[in-house]
């Protein structure tokens, strides 16, 4: 056996005998083969872990960028955002495949503004209805990006591609009673999502003006009627209302610190074609047609509940009026350069109708009797009545609702029957 010294200090050739040399060569050869083998193993392991890391990164990025990105996608965004009238605007409509989002987008496009929708297509209610709205928008040249307002990278990308002049922020977790079932969804969309959107707006250059959907529910337990913007809004009756009220405060800070132009719209129970299946007028219609009972809530002392139901076309006019009159944001790259407008308006109909009266109108339009189950209003976040004072909106936005509940529900029922037919059975019933 070679000595340790031999191994480390190889002898000069010719100094060792032959047997010793063969032995040494064999040993060296064996040693180098096993080293090579080890190296090979090491390389294979390295390659394998590199490949699996790559696939992890790939699948990860696929998860985060599920359905956005790429040259084709960017082209669709740009084309959709193109302004086709002088003095027009380019608007990012969040909740673009939602009820109000769809109608506002169509109205903007129709008059030549650029519109890009953004919607996460969640399954709070039947996503196939949202997909159908998306198809409708697509037919009118409006591209709806599939993504969440909490995705900061996506928002930054959108502002990178298009210098949006306005953001119409309608994406939200809606519904008053569902907040007891899934409270966190309200925090996710109405608080975290709102902050994520405002962060993107404040960093954009130029900063867009923001018009967004607050809610009549912020008046909560307020008893003074009709509800005016200056009335107290510190007694919310539901978590939904509390998140909308929080939104009003959050938008105020972004206005104050970063100079974002903000207009908050307090919508009053909006209804109409392409509406939300979680709302009473919608699922009452479905149940009446299917011969199923409906539950009608009644207030204290057997007083009927009432809502200031507002037709979608009137709401659209209020939204466009808000966009048209929104002053500019004053900041750039996250810095405020002067005061910017902060406005809040009621968008209601100014004529509340009781829930039993709403049922009566539906019965007449459907030519069918409802099977009514009348119960006392459970403590689920509902308020007994809503009634908007709209003088501010009338004065500042030229807002003037023109559709009463009879006329609006007639249009809704016509749409419902053409969309679902008389036997609507599929779809996720939320209530
Ligand atoms: O203005 C708003 O800010 C909100 O308007 C809407 O809320 P609401 O006014 O509560 O509408 P909606 O659910 O259609 O109930 C209508 C009436 O039917 C009664 N109602 C309801 C369900 C039922 O099973 N029975 C019943 O009597 C119920 O008690 C109520 O009196 C939006 O959903 C909400 O997202 C928000 O935008």
Give an account of the 3D structure.
This protein has 431 residues and is of the alpha/beta class. It has two domains: 1-10 and 17-64, no CATH class; 71-270 and 314-350 and 389-402, NAD(P)-binding Rossmann-like Domain (Rossmann fold). 46% of the residues lie in helices and 13% in strands. It has helices at residues 4-8, 18-64, 71-81, 99-110, 127-139, 152-161, 183-203, 239-258, 280-290, 312-325, 355-366, 391-397, 405-420, and strands spanning 90-94, 114-119, 143-146, 166-169, 209-215, 262-267, 270-271, 293-298, 306-307, 310-311, 342-347, 353-354, 371-376. It has a seven-stranded parallel sheet with strand order 3-2-1-4-5-6-11, with helices on both faces. Residues 1-30, 50-65 and 427-431 have low confidence and may be disordered. Ligand UGB binds at residues 174-176, 215-217, 267-269, 279-281, 295-297, 305, 307, 355, 382, 431. It catalyses: UDP-alpha-D-glucuronate = UDP-alpha-D-galacturonate.
Describe how the helices and strands are arranged.
Layout: H1 4-8, H2 18-64, H3 71-81, E1 90-94, H4 99-110, E2 114-119, H5 127-139, E3 143-146, H6 152-161, E4 166-169, H7 183-203, E5 209-215, H8 239-258, E6 262-267, E7 270-271, H9 280-290, E8 293-298, E9 306-307, E10 310-311, H10 312-325, E11 342-347, E12 353-354, H11 355-366, E13 371-376, H12 391-397, H13 405-420
Parallel strand pairs: 1-2, 1-4, 2-3, 4-5, 5-6, 6-11, 7-10, 8-13
Antiparallel strand pairs: 9-12
Bound molecules: the ligand O=C(O)[C@H]1O[C@H](OP(=O)(O)OP(=O)(O)OC[C@H]2O[C@@H](n3ccc(=O)[nH]c3=O)[C@H](O)[C@@H]2O)[C@H](O)[C@@H](O)[C@H]1O.
